[in-house]
Known about the structure:
By secondary structure, this protein is mainly alpha-helical. Helix content is 64%, strand content 0%. It has one domain. The site of one iron/sulfur cluster has 13 residues, from helix 1 and helix 4.
Amino acid sequence: xxxxxxxxxxxxxxxxxxxxxxxxxxxxxxxxxxxxxxxxxxxxxxxxxxxxxxxxxxxxxxxxxxxxxxxxxxxxxxxxxxxxxxxxxxxxxxxxxxxxxxxxxxxxxxxxxxxxxxxxxxxxxxxxxxxxxxxxxxxxxxxxxxxxxxxxxxxxxxxxxxxxxxxxxxxxxxxxxxxxxxxxxxxxxxxxxxxxxxxxxxxxxxxxxxxxxxxxxxxxxxxxxxxxxxxxxxxxxxxxxxxxxxxxxxxxxxxxxxxxxxxxxxxxxxxxxxxxxxxxxxxxxxxxxxxxxxxxxxxxxxxxxxxxxxxxxxxxxxxxxxxxxxxxxxxxxxxxxxxxxxxxxxxxxxxxxxxxxxxxxxxxxxxxxxxxxxxxxxxxx
Length: 381
Ligand code: SF4
Ligand code: SF4
């Protein structure tokens, strides 16, 4: 990672914190920091992505503004984190999409929705957009099967490859090795930290979004959003199995597994994203990196729309509004897939990778001769 004004500021903050260490028990950032005397740009990238932005250390800090030391750890780590998204983006020429990301995400979403509607009108009889379509295969009468599979498969495959390349770039830059990824114990520890959002604990009972008071709201809303997203993913996977393996195309009855998973997942995502938007609106701007708020809001709105339009489609699927609802919903989903590698969504990959790196640091490989198998060999000899 290149040296920038943000990495220089973050290094200065880490050096002050390393001398102070008051916040040592707050989150994973401080134990990772104390393991270092000097901070390379790779170390700062790792530490910045380890920060969950709970803001606990800002309110606890005796050197925070207006103190002349001007220590604002959440803000400076957020700036470095944003630079890492650009730095590790794949393919490189698309990294520029992280600049003015809120505008990019909004315009691209609107463009993809409009394109999906136009393609529908060009490829099928436009009357399907306002005449009720019911029974098995109704969705394919609006958007042909081949188009749906090509767009969904193409955009999701592209997103997966781009995210995997981003992970590889991060892992290499922060000093990781490929063989470390096979160690079961650190993997299990990291998975636990990811799934529980343990590091949103801050200095007590949660985040400090509005002020010094701790709150679990952000963690709970994030859980609603994340597990809602996972239920929606499970719904899509189940529906794909029903359609392509069992030969039973959508739409499915309300009490079927894909619809139940999608409904509860969609409700969870709507609650989670709306809650997170609200937390952002009421939170104290002092520890926040204001120039990054556009990207935060754009992703939350995109996730909200993907769930909300899915629920609208479910509610109106047997009416004449189904055609337009389906085209709009799929437009949002295709936009989400396309934009995932170039939106704030990448924080899921880099933060998970940073938590894995942290788990590896806490559970290092035993030196040769200290493994149980080596000791057994030694005593046998
Ligand atoms: S954030 Fe402030 S109080 Fe906490 S370790 Fe750093 S310098 Fe010390
Ligand atoms: S996770 Fe919270 S306590 Fe830890 S560095 Fe980030 S803002 Fe500070």
